[in-house]
Amino acid sequence: MKKIINTSKAPAPIGPYNQAVLSGNTLYTSGQIALHPETMELVIDDITSETKQVMENMKAVLAEADMTFENVIKTSIFISDMENFGAINAVYGQYFDEATAPARETVEVANLPKYVNVEISMIAVKS
In the chain, what are the domains? Predict the structure, then answer.
């Protein structure tokens, strides 16, 4: 059985999708970009603040499903410029314990929604 996960503490979906879907004990999140949940304005002053907003949005989605970053087993990071990898990785790393960090891929893409610089999605499991 699937359960739809949505929270007002993360940006509302801007298309025909939900913030996340819980299937059994596994949570599949949609990609998050740096939209501020209250204003729906992009936070793109610099790559550090942009990545932090993405991670805070993801934190809110996980919390709505009664999970934390400790539950995350896989992440996908899409970036528009591999030159930003170091700065994105530095912010991302603040949300995980390196010893138990999830599996991950980071892929450079031509464009992202609203022409942002980073989008992150996650899979988490509640044990």
Answer: 2-125 (3.30.1330.40)
